[in-house]
């Protein structure tokens, strides 16, 4: 019965394509119109305790990584719960409107996108605005492996982020909807332009190729074999009509994996930190959003470790980002807009690849008794077709190696890289059992076990969008006016896939100025061309439909894009062929929220156990607790302020901690150079939660919250925070009742006693060669980046390696001079500058941090 049903779907899909002339459509009249753009941003407010997505190792059954203690949470099923906030997770909206068409780009810093989220937002935004938004809402993500992981109901990906949590899904949807509607409300005529920069990170300081398996394969005649990363940086600049910056969209590929699977702190990771640093180059809050490209086979680079490494990546990237932004021309002439969105159907019977009729690759129909011929390549090195080794009904996982990943459940071949493949239908019962699923969509036997393909693996949403003509800055610095073409893809594109796409849309569609955006609309794992997939390795490990999927996706994308600026097929879709996966209705489960009437009570001493990310696992096990005494004075860089308080249940409380400064007796929030409040939004202040008792989650718990601030400036002047009186101000919520979200709440807030920030004492040494060695010492538990050549928990060079020194002599005379040095060994070195007869030296950096040393004279 299942075979007949699937064959019927295939026939309907094929006939529909034939009836549509292979996606061709009759041209229709389109009018250009002045472009209006609205931008907006906010942060998700999901509970601490929600598991993080991206690493199977955080699963109790798979390695137990990221376990900070034995805490439980109502928001996790079988993955370890998160324990705090390193950065909040931003939501950013860009609403484009030319009076004829709309395009809504929503960017959330998550591990991947989910078509169920797209569908829900599309419906809500249509209902709220009355606009036609079918196929015109894009949800793209930054691929942080340290953001929330339970928002998606794609069962196969439970293995990377835990079971779907309906409450978190609707919490997320509500916030994204609100931000999108704010952007809609704030639309205004805009000056818009696009810029391109190739090979912008030649030293791999920001990101690097991680995939060695394909280094010996030459994919294009003009591209030599060897390590290769997607080299393109693209940028869209959005200003108001007076030239003031409103928003920036930019794209390049970088994985969000700096913090690793042992991390339990919610974070935007590396991609997000390119935004955090870049947005501070402006003197007002500009909505800055990084969109992913060929990130599938790139790793983040940077220097130092931990949270400081994240900041270093932003510092390495920012000069190139801002330099491109400065050179992007903008204009407000009328533009045409068109967006098409279609579902890519996936099964071994449908998938084939032609590459514009240059190849004929396809799979054989599934036959459980078939024995593959073992021939992967023809004598000339081309891919042999039919690809009979990929003999599966349900798709596969864990491909890419030479040994069976799960013996007895594979494709029945020992040919690399098929030998390690495992049928998805063999994994589904495991998913159902381990994640407590009573029913899987698509189960036609009624026994709870699905042996037909999982519905979410059978459809993948793709979007093609065109805006233009726009002013453009090309890689060589020249300027043109041309159409800008964007493709949004449902997975992790690798570099070769992106390069193939760029070439095909130029050659076959005529779009020379284009950008591919990955991790958008849906998720199908890694997106690769056939030759790249067949090189094996890790990337095919997470890919459902074998070596031909990537090329099939490219073929289909090109065909559907031929309809741009003609007519949209989604207006004529009687069979629902081009729609997203159809999911069941979801109901939020009830659970008890703790009433915490004493929330807002600042602690003078730590409880017996209090989790903070600044303590090691051994220290936590040994009962070490943080020092909660607020000092009267704290030094820049080397100082730390830690507080803890009784707060609300994480179901209602995600406290916001802001830094305030006293000026003429008035306390005000400290602002960054761009006018944002210094808080726990962007990693300046860490936030952690400890329930007491740790478990069970339904116990009557006390909820302790901790915050830590290192005395470091946000991005600019990290070692030069102005001296003065400061305090931390906490804003939170406690529950008044309710059994499911949204709960009844009331606010609490309190401010700490003040403390004085003072200049740091520099360390000063003299070498045997007469070199002056000066450094700024960070806190021993420091987590903030101070200097690119420094150490977050050790010594750091001076800003710009500049210092004013005063030499004192035995005669009591003194001489002042300004020195310029170099960074080396986590310090600033001023070579051979020490006078032989000087008896002391005082060194002052550009911020007034001072150090002295007695000399022999």
Report what the structure shows.
By secondary structure, the chain is an alpha+beta fold. The protein folds into three domains: about 10-340 and about 460-570, no CATH class; about 600-760, Immunoglobulin-like, CATH 2.60.40.2300; about 765-855, Sandwich (Immunoglobulin-like). Strands 1, 3, 4, 5, 6, 8, 9, 11, 13, 18, 19 and 21 form a twelve-stranded mixed beta sheet that branches. A six-stranded mixed beta sheet has the order 10-2-28-29-25-23, with no helix packed on it. Strands 24, 26, 27, 30, 31 and 32 form a six-stranded mixed beta sheet that branches. β18 (about 460-475) and β19 (about 480-490) form a beta hairpin. α9 (about 495-510) runs parallel beside α11 (about 550-560). The protein is globular.
Map the helices and strands:
Blueprint: H1 2-19, E1 36-43, E2 84-85, E3 90-97, E4 102-108, H2 115-129, E5 137-141, H3 158-161, H4 166-185, E6 188-198, E7 207-209, E8 232-240, E9 245-251, E10 265-266, H5 269-278, E11 287-291, E12 298-300, H6 306-327, E13 336-345, E14 352-353, E15 361-362, E16 396-397, E17 422-423, H7 424-434, H8 455-458, E18 459-473, E19 479-488, E20 492-493, H9 495-509, E21 514-517, E22 526-527, H10 530-534, H11 549-561, E23 601-602, H12 617-621, E24 633-635, E25 640-646, E26 656-663, E27 666-669, E28 685-692, E29 702-710, E30 724-737, E31 744-751, E32 755-758, E33 763-766, E34 772-777, E35 795-796, E36 802-809, E37 814-820, E38 822-824, E39 827-830, E40 838-844, E41 850-854
Parallel strand pairs: 2-10, 4-5, 6-18, 9-11, 19-21, 20-22, 24-32
Antiparallel strand pairs: 1-3, 1-6, 2-28, 3-4, 6-8, 7-12, 8-9, 13-18, 14-15, 16-17, 18-19, 23-25, 25-29, 26-27, 26-30, 28-29, 30-31, 30-32, 33-34, 34-35, 34-39, 36-37, 36-40, 38-39, 40-41
């Amino acid at each position: 019965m299942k075979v007949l049903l699937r064959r019927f779907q295939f026939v309907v899909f094929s006939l529909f394509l034939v009836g549509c002339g292979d996606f061709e459509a009759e041209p229709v009249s389109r009018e250009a119109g002045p472009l209006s753009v609205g931008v907006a941003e906010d942060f998700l407010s999901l509970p601490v305790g929600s598991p993080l997505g991206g690493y199977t190792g955080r699963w109790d059954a798979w390695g137990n990584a990221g376990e900070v203690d034995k805490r439980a949470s109502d928001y996790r099923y079988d993955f370890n719960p998160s324990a705090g906030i390193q950065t909040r997770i931003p939501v950013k909206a860009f609403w484009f409107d030319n009076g004829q068409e709309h395009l809504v780009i929503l960017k959330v810093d998550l591990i991947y996108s989910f078509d169920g989220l797209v569908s829900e937002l599309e419906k809500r935004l249509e209902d709220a605005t009355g606009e036609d938004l079918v196929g015109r809402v894009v949800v793209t993500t930054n691929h942080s492996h340290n953001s929330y992981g339970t928002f998606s109901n794609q069962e196969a990906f439970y293995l990377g982020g835990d079971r779907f949590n309906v409450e978190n899904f609707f919490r997320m949807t509500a916030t994204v909807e609100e931000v999108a509607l704010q952007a809609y409300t704030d639309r205004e005529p805009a000056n818009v332009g696009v810029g391109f920069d190739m090979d912008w990170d030649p030293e791999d300081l920001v990101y690097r190729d991680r995939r060695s398996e394909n280094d010996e394969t030459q994919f294009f005649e003009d591209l030599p074999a060897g390590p290769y990363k997607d080299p393109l940086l693209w940028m869209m600049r959005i200003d108001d009509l007076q030239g003031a910056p409103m928003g920036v969209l930019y794209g390049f590929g970088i994985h969000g994996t700096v913090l690793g699977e042992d991390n339990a702190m919610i974070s935007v990771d590396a991609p997000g930190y390119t935004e955090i640093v870049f947005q501070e180059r402006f003197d007002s809050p500009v909505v800055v959003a990084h969109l992913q490209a060929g990130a599938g086979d790139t790793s983040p680079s940077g220097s130092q470790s931990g949270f400081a490494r994240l900041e270093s990546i932003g510092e390495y990237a920012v000069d190139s980002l801002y330099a491109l932004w400065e050179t992007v021309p903008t204009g407000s002439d009328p533009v045409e807009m068109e967006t098409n969105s279609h579902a890519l159907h996936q099964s071994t019977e449908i998938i084939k690849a032609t590459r514009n009729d240059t190849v004929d690759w396809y799979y054989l129909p599934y036959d459980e008794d078939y024995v593959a011929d073992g021939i992967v390549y023809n004598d000339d090195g081309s891919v042999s077709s039919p690809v009979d080794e990929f003999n599966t009904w349900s798709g596969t996982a864990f491909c890419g190696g030479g040994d069976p990943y799960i013996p007895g459940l594979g494709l029945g071949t020992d040919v690399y890289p098929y030998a390690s493949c495992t049928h998805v239908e063999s994994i589904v019962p495991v998913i159902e059992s381990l994640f407590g699923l009573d029913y899987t969509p698509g189960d036609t036997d009624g026994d709870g076990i699905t042996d037909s393909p999982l519905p979410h693996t059978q459809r993948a949403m793709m979007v093609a969008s065109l805006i233009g003509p726009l002013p453009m800055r090309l890689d060589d610095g020249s300027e043109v006016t041309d159409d800008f073409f964007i493709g949004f893809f449902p997975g992790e594109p690798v570099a070769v896939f992106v390069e193939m796409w760029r070439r095909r849309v130029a050659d076959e569609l005529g779009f020379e100025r284009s950008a591919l955006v990955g991790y958008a609309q849906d998720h199908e794992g890694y997106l690769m061309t056939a030759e790249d997939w067949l090189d094996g390795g890790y990337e095919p490990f997470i890919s459902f439909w074998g070596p031909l999927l990537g090329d099939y996706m490219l073929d289909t994308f090109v065909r559907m894009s031929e309809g741009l600026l003609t007519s949209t097929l989604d207006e004529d879709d009687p069979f629902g062929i081009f729609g997203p996966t159809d999911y069941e209705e979801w109901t939020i489960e009830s659970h008890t929220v703790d009433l915490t009437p004493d929330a807002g009570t600042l602690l003078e001493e730590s409880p017996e156990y209090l989790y903070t990310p600044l303590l090691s696992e051994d220290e936590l096990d040994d009962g070490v607790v943080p020092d909660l005494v607020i000092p009267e004075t704290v030094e820049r860089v080397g100082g730390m302020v830690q507080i803890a308080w009784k707060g609300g249940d994480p179901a209602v409380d995600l406290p916001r901690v802001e830094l305030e400064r006293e000026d003429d007796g008035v306390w005000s929030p400290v602002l960054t150079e761009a006018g944002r409040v210094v808080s726990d939004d962007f990693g300046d202040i860490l936030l952690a939660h400890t329930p007491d008792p740790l478990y069970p989650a339904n116990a009557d718990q006390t909820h302790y919250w901790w915050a830590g601030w290192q005395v470091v400036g946000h991005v600019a002047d990290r070692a030069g925070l102005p001296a003065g009186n400061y305090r931390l101000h906490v804003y939170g919520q406690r529950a008044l009742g309710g059994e499911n979200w949204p709960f009844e709440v009331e606010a609490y807030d309190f401010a700490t006693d003040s403390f004085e920030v003072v200049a740091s004492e520099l360390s000063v040494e003299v070498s045997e060669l007469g070199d002056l060695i000066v450094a700024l010492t960070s806190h021993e538990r420091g987590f903030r980046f101070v200097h690119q050549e420094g150490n977050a928990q050790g010594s750091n060079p001076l800003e710009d390696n500049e210092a004013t020194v005063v030499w004192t002599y035995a005669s009591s005379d003194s001489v002042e001079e300004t020195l310029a040095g170099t960074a080396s060994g986590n310090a600033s070195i001023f070579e051979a500058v020490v006078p032989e007869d000087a008896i002391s030296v005082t060194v002052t950096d550009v911020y007034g941090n001072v150090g002295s040393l007695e000399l022999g004279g």
